[in-house]
Amino acid sequence: MVILKILQRQLTGANPECYKTEPLSIDSLISALRDIRFAHLPGSGYLPMFNRTDLTDQLQDLAGVNISTQIIPTRTMTANYRNVKV
């Protein structure tokens, strides 16, 4: 729960204009994180299997990765995994 609250605070702090009228709820954050899924394509990489939203874009910006492209090569996905700062 503490990690979710920290993430909520970071997102609202980085994008205050997005959350002026409706604050970011923990439930919507959990839902967005659960919906981020990938299909593994052996020999090619990973295919994003989630709908791109403003929240998923903000999560990617906060983490410093771009995971909503067509196919993410395995090498890039491994590098993203190592570089994400918690």
Describe the structure.
With 86 residues, this protein is mainly alpha-helical. The chain has one domain. It is 50% helix and 9% strand. The chain contains four helices and two strands. The protein has helices spanning 2-14, 26-35, 54-63, 74-83; strands spanning 38-41, 45-48. Strands 1-2 form a two-stranded antiparallel ribbon. Strand 1 (38-41) and strand 2 (45-48) form a beta hairpin. It is elongated. The chain starts with a helix and ends with a helix. The relative contact order is 0.15. The model has no long low-confidence stretch (mean pLDDT 91).
Low-confidence stretches: none
Order of helices and strands: HHEEHH
**Overall geometry:** elongated
Q: Give the helix tally.
A: 4
Mean pLDDT: 91
Relative helix content: 40-55%
Instruction: Characterize the largest beta sheet: strand count, sense, and whether it forms a barrel.
Output: 2 strands, antiparallel
Strand order of the largest sheet: 1-2
Number of domains: 1
For the secondary structure, the number of strands is: 2
What class, by secondary structure content?
Answer: mainly alpha
Strand content: 5-15%
Our measurement of the CA-to-CA distance between the termini, rounded to an integer number of angstroms, reads 14 Å
Please tell me how large the radius of gyration is.
Answer: 14 Å
Question: Which terms would index this structure?
Answer:
86 residues; mainly alpha; 4 helices; 9% strand
Topology:
Layout: H1 2-14, H2 26-35, E1 38-41, E2 45-48, H3 54-63, H4 74-83
Antiparallel strand pairs: 1-2
A few lines on this structure:
This protein has 86 residues and is mostly helical. Helix content is 50%, strand content 9%. Strand 1 and strand 2 form a beta hairpin.
